[in-house]
């Protein structure tokens, strides 16, 4: 349990700079930019899914944390958010490198996650257009922060509040993972069957780096097939979902995002599974 607590604290502290950067961008966008500047940024946002997917493949969940906060205030689109979530590698890449995985395997994981993020990001933005109500959301109005005394002070306030929330949830999730143990996950995938992508995608949704660690290790140990690993790692975006549910007051919308990510993970996993069988 001591390790569980220490890991939760370390994982939370790692997010500190990313949270602060995200809130600083939000504060600047809300209070310092003119309407003309905002419109120019929104036009440039058409390439958001491409930029978001590329940013997401970097290790850790920092960019998914930033993207979540930027989406809540509608600075970026839903497609961009989903692109970041799908491409985010969290702990996957460091583990693959540490375990000296074959370079082709690493490229396959990153390439598929990047490609899927870009494709579905653009599809979602093409189908779902933001409405006026979404664009007018302001985090400072919702949280009643004292923004008039400077955006740095206000950003720090938002960061600390969010960090405490993340720490509490991470402690709970780490404790649950500790109680269940590695054997529980191994038994779920002991049979290589049709339902592996469904189970793996569900595990990937756990908003904690432990899920990406577990999925990657299970793949490297030959317990989880490639299709299942891709499905689970596509739905894993680190602690980003914790921030989404904390910051975005629209619970229905949050659940729709979760189901959307899960559906994409399962769909891609089943597709790869089918291709593997045919080949």
Main beta sheet strand tally, sense and closure: none
Number of helical segments with 4 or more residues: 16
What characteristic shape results from the CA principal axes? globular
Residue-averaged pLDDT = 79
Residue windows where pLDDT falls under 50 for at least 5 positions: 132-137
Q: What distance lies between the first and last C-alpha atoms, to the nearest angstrom?
A: 46 Å
Helix share, percent:
over 70%
Give me the strand/helix succession. HHHHHHHHHHHHHHHH
The value of Rg in angstroms is 19 Å
Compute the number of strand runs.
0
Strand content: under 5%
Structural class, by secondary structure, is mainly alpha
Overview of the molecule:
Helix 2 (16-31) packs across helix 11 (151-188), helix 4 (48-56) packs parallel to helix 6 (78-87) and helix 6 runs antiparallel to helix 8 (103-127). This protein is an all-alpha fold. It has 16 helices and no strands. Residues 132-137 have low confidence and may be disordered.
